[in-house]
Design goal:
mainly alpha, two-stranded parallel sheet
Length: 79
């Protein structure tokens, strides 16, 4: 990881991703618990590598390909 801040703004409709995860969840009187895991290795590397040192900043307009990579990786990083 770099020793600098990074930012990815992905506020366009074209960058919206819906994630569905198969989970058994019973809703009733007792509080329900849902645990989601985000694999940070997948976030930065799967299916494409995100180079935070050279491309760690996008406001979408200035670097749409990197914003697209971020949302695609993010959607696949949940377990």
């Amino acid at each position: 990881m770099p020793n600098q801040a990074f930012i990815f703004h992905t506020g366009f409709d074209d960058l919206f991703r819906q994630v569905s995860l198969p989970r058994n969840l019973e809703v009733g009187k007792d509080p329900a618990e849902l645990t989601l895991t985000l694999d940070f290795d997948k976030l930065w590397n799967t299916p494409q590598n995100i180079d935070l040192i050279n491309n760690g900043n996008t406001q979408t307009f200035d670097n749409f390909p990197d914003a697209l990579t971020m949302v695609n990786n993010f959607a696949l990083a949940f377990e």
